[in-house]
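Below is just one:
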Amino acid sequence: MTREKLYLFDTTLRDGAQTSGIDFSIAEKIAIAELLERLGVDYIEGGYPGANPTDTEFFSEKRTKTARFTAFGMTKRAGRSASNDPGLQLLLEAKADANCFVAKSWDYHVEVALGCTNEENLESIRDTVQAAVAAGREAMIDCEHFFDGYKANPDYALACARTAYEAGARWVVLCDTNGGTLPGEVKDIIARVSQVVPGSHLGIHAHNDTGQAVANSLAAVEAGVRQIQGTLNGIGERCGNANLISLIPTLMLKAPYKDTVELSVRPERLKDITAISHAFDEMLNRAPDRHAPYVGESAFATKAGIHASALLKDPKTYEHVEPESVGNKRKVLVSDQAGKSNLLGELSRLGIDVDKADPKLDALLTEVKEREAKGYAYEAADASFELLARRILGKVPRFFEVKSFRVMVERRFNAVGEQVTMSEAVVKVDIDGETRMSVCEGNGPVNALDGALRKDLGKYQSAIEGLELVDYKVRILDGGTGAITRVLIESHDKTTHQRWFTIGVSSNIVDASFQALTDSITYALLKSAG
């Protein structure tokens, strides 16, 4: 059976950014784009250049290597030419490969939101697509509220889709903007749309307000669309968007999709999807959903007491796919299964060669499990995991050893009578038998520790000149006065342009922070040493 290409369009950085409580920084957008490229999506929609300073700066340069970097925006305003519309011209000037333009396809919105005629709206769609194509961009139109518009006035909704396609749009995306359409309706309406626009040029953008976003996306694929839009972990405004983390394994592992469509996500990359999902949650500073399909900690967990007989005969009885196929692992609560295959896969990804019979591998697996029980989460801290693995496998040089550190916080009045709080850190390190002590002030304990630790590393100093701490996240893992604290630090080397994440866990927030800081510097030295 011949399989057709199905394109994945990620809109985490734009539609997902509308989630309540989420506000991506430039550094976070870059890190998330790297996660998406690691997964293998075809399009990464980076935001709306011109709408805010963050998105404008993000599009000041191309941020992807393999995925098509896509800028989002609106069609030109009615009554203006494409060349005389500042918003459209800003989009065409962004460092992007493609442009996705939102267009009204519900005649009610054309009247009340745009205040123009139906024909003027069609003209805006046509002129915008033609301008993007003339600028060398891949053009696509997001038909906002398409399904509601179709139900209200099918002829006009179809005219919007046809106009975009005939003007040269690579994709005409049908949006279930309020998430109220059901799978049967999606299939029926797309069957009608495909009579005017081929399925090879149709996409689906589903919201999750009835919990149907994934189902609606799959129904659209069955109806012939060949682009799916969605977000990591299904984030988005209100109830979220179609969850690519659920859609990708379903499309790759389940019939009829695995036999009829082909994704750019390689099978070996599918094994990273659990780690990518969890890493994204860590970036958002929130706990991963334990019960998320495919990637949740409990997705393949079974209690023996419920189905004891069948379970003891075959633990896979209650698994619809192999946990390892999505980078997860089986949890049978009467006998926790080893995760050596996952460990070997992660070591291979990091370029660490180890014989699967090496007894140190068992020691590493035991150490990882013990640390995870204490609160460590290595899915989001590749650098700390690599250091832990190399230490146990005997492959990390001893660059320096921290002998002690001390932090003091002082609140006082400065020379002009303002109340200020200053932190001072003292760090003692041993380098080749020589003890060095550094002191540094900072605007907080972590900033002071960071400065003191990096102030004088002797012969290694030049290797960390470009190192900077770009993000710092704290999560309290349990309550009470003895709460365990997890700290995640993102570092960036301005010389090599590399980014990495390190982690620390302790009942003391300063100690947890210092663990992550020490790992960050050690990792920088390791990479510098080649």
Notes: The radius of gyration is 26 Å. Residues 101 and 412 are 54 Å apart (CA to CA). The chain is about 35% helix and 20% strand. Residues 509-528 form the longest helix (20 residues).
